[in-house]
Amino acid sequence: MLDSPAIRVHQLEHAYARGLFRAAAPTLRALDFECARGRVLALAGPNGSGKSTLLKLCAGLEAPRSGRLEVLGGDPRDSAVARRIGHCPQAAAWPGDLSFLGALELAGALRGLGRAARQRAEAMLEEVGLARQSRLAIARGSGGMVQRFALAQAFLHEPELLLLDEPTAGLDAEGFEAYAALLARAKARGATIVAASHLPADLGAGADELVVLLDGRVAARGAPGELVAHDGLLGLYARLRREQA
Amino acid sequence: MSNAGWWAVARLQALRCARWPVLALVLLVAWWAHAAFDRAGVPQAGAPAVPLEADMLARHGAWWLVVVALPPTFAWLAAGAAHDALGRERPLLLAAGASPLVVLGATASGIAAAGVLALALATAAIESGARVEGVAARSLDVAPAPSGRWIDERGFEFVLVDPRPHAAEALLLPLGLASGAGAATQVAWEARTPGGTTRGRLSLALQGEAVLALPSGAPLSVALRTEEPGARVHLLDGARWQGAAESVRLASLELWWRAMAAMCAICGLAAGAAAWMRPLLAGATTLSAWWAAGFWFEPSWLAGADLGACLSLVREGRLPPRGDAWQIADGLLLGAGGVVLGAWRFAGPARAATTGAPRTEDHA
After folding, report:
1. Which of A31, A102, B135, B225 has minimal CB crowding within 10 Å?
2. What is the rounded distance in angstroms from the CA atom of residue B192 to the CA atom of residue B215?
3. Is B46 touching A (CB cutoff 8 A)?
4. Higher pLDDT among residues B8 and B72, named by residue
5. In angstroms, what CA-CA distances link A244 with A52, A218, A223, B249?
6. A residues 115-154 closer than 8 Å to B (CB)
7. Is B90 an 8 Å CB contact of chain A?
8. How far apart (Å, rounded) are the C-alpha atoms in residues B338 and A149?
9. For range A163-184, the mean pLDDT
10. How far does CA A49 lie from the centroid of its chain?
11. Across the interface, do B96 and A92 touch by the CB < 8 Å criterion?
């Protein structure tokens, strides 16, 4: 299955259920796209365009309503596939009663690292600059620390596919540096990276391709430099909306 | 999820029960249960003539407190932990490809293990407070004796053909006095088998139990009559076989066994229900269903359903029937059923989508 793309999406539809008597809110509509292995894909779009939902679907955290979704040649909900994925969600609420080290060790155990989980967790906390706070409860950490932890748990098991949702939100200069180092190493070992962001700097940095989502559909895709060079993201969204209308 | 992952989640959830409000409640219950013997007025150790009945009554009160306090607490904890595991902790627990079934199962197992430990602590506290070292007869199965019959001086006789339990040494018949010449009346009984005959007499004031020593062999023929002309006694429900006397401390062990089975079932069901509703509602729904079914209907398939009946036996000064492994298996099965029911909520659409199933109707 190594010749299959890292992500293959065909006519994918998703809607968040709202309860027994309220209609579901559609988030993705007949979405089609592919991402080849080893590529770095930047995902952009205004708020509510479906970026986070798409990443959650690819991480196996959400179920599509219809369509076809193939990640690393299989179903992202199968544990054999899911263990090869690293997901850094946007503004997730981590178990606040656990320490950074405890939570990372748990993540390692869940991802099949076995006895190496603790050692790997300690090394990763060192890499993201949380070694001194390793015993601190997550609930007591600052926003930046929690974001570093989110990155650490995504990169922990050296996954083949990284799904990063607003990976630099809340990071300070040292955090940016740690993130850049993690990203560079992941690219060097041939991992596929899909990163959603609102920051042009994030989108442009090393991305092979930019995919723009609007109202749950792929509105444009191309080289990041070409798409955002002239009008910036705001101008691009406005132009795409006009074209859609 | 690997075995290591399962144990990691189960251990995490069990350790979370060690938060100070839960620990404080468990310790308070244990201390209160330990002190039940003082409140019941049982004299200090070494004092003569401590009535066994008072000790068993105190044990009954202590156990009621445990049953009322601990299962609801752990049902609520299981529902809350399951709700969090499938909700806000989803990115950490489910992103590794663990199915909701596995996460729910590990969560319910961890909380149930902590609950069983809390019950063990309460049991130890109760027995450390008990003052009487004695023996009490063990109640066995329900005996198929007739009930709702009147007994007068003409007598009433019935035959039990079915073989009695191997350990049965006596047959216990509950009797109520309907009318008599004085405050009490004498009831004479006779139990006869091909192996021999035993006789006895009971002075019945309002309500009491005739304990018929059993001769060996079957069938068993039982004859009862009042000794005063005009006196009438009613043969009540609840005839039971009774075994040999054993240490009174075994009462707590039997109650713990049943409470443990109930804890396994309740934690699994509450965790499963939390996938469908809010944690508080899930815990409350599970408990009300268990209490209602267990204490009113006592269905044999419900783990711990006979806990109320066993508590009544302890109050009467007898040991409950011996618990068996099936009761625990039943609790685990029910708990697993609850977990499967919870995971069912998350089954279906993803598999259908990846296998190219037809598009489902859009409600938007």
Report:
1. B135
2. 7
3. no
4. B72
5. 22, 11, 20, 79
6. 117, 153
7. yes
8. 34
9. 90
10. 15
11. no
The tally of CA atoms less than 13 A away on the side-chain side of residue A87 is 30
Q: What is the CA radius of gyration of chain A?
A: 18
Task: Indicate which of A110, A115, A147, A155 best probes the interface with B, i.e. most B CBs within 10 Å of its own CB.
Answer: A110
- B contacts of A61 (beta carbons < 8 Å): 90-91, 94-95
User: Which one-letter DSSP state was computed for residue B41?
Assistant: T
Secondary structure (DSSP) of A137-201: BGGGS-HHHHHHHHHHHHHTT--SEEEEESTTTT--HHHHHHHHHHHHHHHHTT-EEEEE-S-HH
pTM of the model: 0.79
pLDDT (tens digit per residue) in B196-239: 899 998 888 888 888 898 888 878 999 999 988 888 889 998 88
**Residue B353 pLDDT greater than 80, yes or no:** no
CA distance B123 to B118: 9
One-letter amino acid at B10 equals: A
The answer on pLDDT for B182 being more than 80 is no
For residue B291, give both structure tokens: 């209490």
CB burial readout B304-323, b (16+ within 10 A) else e: bbbbbbbbebbbbbbbbbeb
Interchain contact, B353 vs A69, CB within 8 Å: yes
For residue B333, the model assigns a pLDDT of: 95
- CA of B92 vs chain A CAs: smallest distance (Å): 6
Pairing of β A192-196 and β A40-44: parallel
Nearest chain A Cα to B2, which residue?
A112
Q: Do B2 and A114 touch (CB under 8 A)?
A: yes
In sequence order, the 6+-apart residues with CB closer than 8 A to the CB of B159 are B219, B220, B221, B222
Strands (E) in chain B, as ranges, are 135-142, 149-151, 156-160, 170-179, 185-193, 196-204, 207-213, 220-226, 232-235, 240-247
Search chain B and give the residue with CA nearest A9: B354
CA distance B282 to chain A (A): 17
Q: Is the CB of residue B115 less than 8 Å from the CB of residue B211?
A: no
Nearest-angstrom CA–CA distance, B308 and A153: 48
For residue A25, list chain B residues with Cβ-Cβ distance below 8 A.
Answer: 364
Q: In this model, does residue B178 exceed pLDDT 80? A: no
Question: So what's the pLDDT on residue B165?
Answer: 83
**What is the arithmetic mean of pLDDT over B91-120?**
88
Q: How many angstroms separate the CA atoms of B228 and A192, rounded? A: 96
Mean pLDDT of chain A: 86
> Which residues of chain A does B352 touch, with a Cβ-Cβ cutoff of 8 Å?
66
pLDDT, tens only, A78-112: 878 888 999 998 877 788 888 999 999 988 888 88
Residue A184 tokens read as 């560079």
* Pairing state between β A192-196 and A161-165: parallel
Helix (H, G, I), strand (E, B) or coil at B40: coil
